[in-house]
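pasting for ref
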Amino acid sequence: MLLSHHVWKKFMNSMVRKKILYIHHGKGLGGAPLSLLYLIKSLDQTRYEPIVLFLHHSEAMDLYKKEGITVVGPVGRYDFSHTKIYWFAWYHAHYVMRSIKDTFITLLFSAPYWLRKIKPDIVHLNTSSLIAWGVAARRQGIKVVWHIREPLAPGYCGLRRAIVQKSVARYAHVIVPICKHDAQPWASMNKTHVLHNPVDARVFDTTVSSDSVIKKYNIDLSQPTLLFLGGLSQEKGTLQALRIFEQVLKIIPAAQLLLAGYCDLSCAGGMRKYFPMQKYKNEVSDLLYRLGDRVIRCGIVRNVPELMAASSVILFPATVGHFARPIIEAGFMKKPVLASALAPLDELVVDGKTGFLLDPHQPQQWADRFAELMTDSVLYHTIALQAYDFCWEHFEVGQYAKKMMDLYKEL
């Protein structure tokens, strides 16, 4: 029986290697570029040709090159960010104007240039803020997959939020939020598919050795150790972490806190010394002084699995709800987690089973839970094993890549 023209065309299209242009916005080496890296490394390379365009040069760009991934750019233009993790307050008006200016330049010149040069079949945007790229791709008839990695910020009057929300809804063929919480603005749309961020279990593995970090940071493995990976971040809860640890020391005086991440506590000059961020820095500095050498400041790290291996419990006392990669990384390494009782953290932690969800403004509750885990070995190992099983079921990178490729096939 002869195949119909439609069936034959569909078969031939399935045999053609599709070119996917991934566009990444950030400068740091955080969750967004790592999640994208895991996806690209797990793609069926016989069916998909990935190319990553970076807006800015960064460590992530260098890492992708090292991994043998085709990289282009940097473009040198800023995106239009408006999320709870990164948004511009009233005193950042100059950053708002820069984003607006670069958005129009990207829409009119940069995006059309790169899209014509690369000629992708699919454009995959790695954050909600890449509005100009979504518009430009649709204008050229290119399919758009739009990843939503952070909850949108409410803002002051909701104008910027509405622009981002409506742009994603209008120009995306597929919307991929990383959790149900972030999906809310587009939850009723058929093209919205929630896919939780994955973790590469080959990297975050229970057999990882902690020897290198023990030696480097002089960690005493015989003592209970908390790990906080937020650096200096109000949203991730640096101040909360230190307040929690202050209460922990009253119960377990020999405990240690590993503080990892960028933590610049320098004093601002001029009018900036009156800004909220400087006040926050001052409070963090005062607490660090009081806590003394019980806090081990690790700085920017690239050896997170080793740090987790050297830790007893992972701490994530966020003040703003967002997807927390350290929580699921810890699960793959059989480490219990204490996290804030905020959405979408309640999608990553089953309270009382894979970890504990607590009020970020009640440090004593956190200290008590930590002490309980450190004195009840049965509870500790039960929580650790259940977290491990839960993460393998929901956040394994192979399952994630398969689901994403299924979405690509539909385009």
